[in-house]
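Researcher: Checking consistency across runs. Here is DNA polymerase III subunit delta' again:
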Amino acid sequence: MQWYPWLNAPYKQVITRCQAGQGHHALLIQSLPGMGDEALVWGISRWLMCTSPEGIKSCGHCHGCQLMLARNHPDWYSLTVEKGKSSLGVDAIRQVTDKLYHFAQQGGAKVIHIPDAAQLTGAAANALLKTLEEPPANCWFFLGTHQPSALPATLRSRCMVLHLAVPAEQQSLHWLSAQVSADPATLMTALRLAAGAPAAALEFLSSEQQTRRMQFCQTLSGAIPDDSLSLLPLLTQDDVALRIHWLMSLLLDCVKYHQNSLQWMTNTDQQALIARLATVISLPALHQSLTLWKQCRHRILETPAVNHELLVTEALLDWEQLFLPAV
């Protein structure tokens, strides 16, 4: 599993507390996607499972380390949603917690990792809560979440929270430039579209997303103000929520353009497009546009089995009305 330099400080913080006997048995890691929270848990788990740690590092040679490296340590549990399901049920929690009250098979620590705690059902969260209130000896829980508010308050209250803050922008750009060949504007745009999470920006640059986004920007340039429906084929793809996010980021940059805040633009590689859109769409219309597309995206993400094409078509028609001169 790839290690990231911005994880060094939180890793040292957690291990140092464990060495001092102050480690909390339940750690809730809050982060944006692409911050490497799973790599952090893996690194901490390796240290906990190591029988001969070398300071804050695992030795890499003992039996515990070898089992971790082979991904088959019997006392390390990762609970993820089964294929075809969208939630983590109570049975999965009970199966693991039943094992926690027995001696560790390797005689050391036992680690339970739940990468996305927001996937826990209500019953599963309650079952886990009981174990967190009276944890077995030498048992460690690591819960990850990108949406802390989606977790029950009772569950959050039983954990020590570790927030993975995004690195400084220049540090992230330096790391990105060493990973992929791209011009500074492209790197900056990818990083800002990912809200500052470097690994998410790298994934964006290394996938087809960047190509699809460029195509979207080109189509948008010719669609506004008179042919907004030409965007429909591009906004009825499987990644429609992501494409609306791209659109909203461009519209928000147009607001920044109106307010002479160009240094805070997200899409630094599309300044000509932003300048053009800002001359076509007034500032009040931009605010209305952002509200319109925010509502559309929310309905797409939160409404089960909704017809995406109908929602997007309605939004495009409503959006086009904002470009008409006032009567």
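Researcher: Does this match what you'd expect to see?
Model: One thing to look at in this run: The chain is about 50% helix and 5% strand.
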